[in-house]
Specification:
This is Holliday junction resolvase RecU. The chain is of the alpha+beta class and 164 residues long. It is built from 4 helices and 10 strands; from the N terminus they run αββββββαββαββα.
Length: 164
């Protein structure tokens, strides 16, 4: 049986995310597992959540989709419509949604609030193939090198400060 490796892209970052938030008193996240079915040399999600993590940060419901890239831009083509729609529904229901991106080349992490993702995605869909609309430059958002800072940055972006 041959399984497409693209089904596991981002797995390393997801594991880093889990380690970064583990044991924090002010946040709790659960990894949303998917059942993957191999077919014709590829793997397809059969069922499960389209979002990688759902949790709570200091009483605020938070959804996070993790992605890995090898440069300083995130191609919007890497965000499937069902993941986008799930993040949008979560945000509209009163939670906070984020796209978390790991730049493997520079060993940097970025957190992009869903409002920014939504606007860029809308422009991307309206301007297919046009230069400047197909990706998000990660340096425009919160960029950090230390994954252990992730929970406090998430908390700050979600709307509350951590008490010392």
């Amino acid at each position: 049986m041959v399984v497409n490796i693209y089904a596991n892209r981002g797995r390393a970052f997801e594991e880093l995310f889990e380690l970064a938030v583990a044991g924090k008193k002010y946040c709790y996240f659960q990894k949303q597992h998917n059942l993957w079915i191999p077919y014709a040399g590829k793997a397809f999600p059969a069922k499960g959540s389209p979002i990688d993590f759902i949790g709570v940060v200091k009483g605020i419901p938070v959804a996070v989709e993790c992605k890995e890239v090898t440069g300083d831009r995130f191609p919007l083509s890497r965000l499937p419509r069902k993941e986008f729609d799930a993040l949008k529904k979560f945000q509209r229901a009163g939670g906070k949604s984020f796209l978390a991106v790991m730049n493997k080349k520079d060993e940097q992490f970025s957190l992009i609030p869903f409002g920014e993702v939504e606007e860029r995605y809308r422009l991307y869909l309206k301007n297919p193939g046009r230069r400047g609309y197909g990706s998000i430059h990660l340096k425009e958002f919160v960029v950090f090198n230390d994954i252990s800072k992730l929970p406090k940055i998430l908390l700050k972006l979600a709307g509350k400060e951590v008490e010392k």
